[in-house]
Amino acid sequence: MMSQSIKIPLPDEDSTCRLGRALAALARPGDLIALTGGLGAGKSTLARAFIRALTRPDEDVPSPTFTLVQVYDTPAGAVWHFDLYRLDRPDDAYELDIEDAFAEGICLIEWPDRLGPLLPTRRLDVRLEETDRATARRAHLTATGSWADRIGELCL
Predict the structure, then answer these.
(1) Which NCBIfam families is this protein grouped with (predicted)?
(2) Residue 62 in this model has a pLDDT that exceeds 90
(3) What is the CATH number of the domain that holds 91?
């Protein structure tokens, strides 16, 4: 399977938000974006910007840390925002209707490693890393499946 990788410096929180909005502009139903990085790396910031780009700028986007999933109806299709940090076993994701999300929605998944073998191989991996500067991050994007064809269209 073909893949594409790019690295993007994110000097501040605004640039992380710009990346989220740029990814939203390219997203379509059936897409999965796997967000990885340590606590405080910017996963939720990127997800909020992504969702607000497809809904409205003032959309209330709570972290799904306790509910595990939030669903947003958007003109681009349903956006499923998963935070799987508290998921005990991969099979527990079926209770969250994750197969419906994979089939019909646009999925943003924080802590995707919790899915183990259930994590689809065709996806966009966004790994966020902290840097020496407090607000700066670095994004490593690895695209497979249809994302590999679209990642070159990313406009920041």
Answers:
(1) T6A_YjeE
(2) no
(3) 3.40.50.300
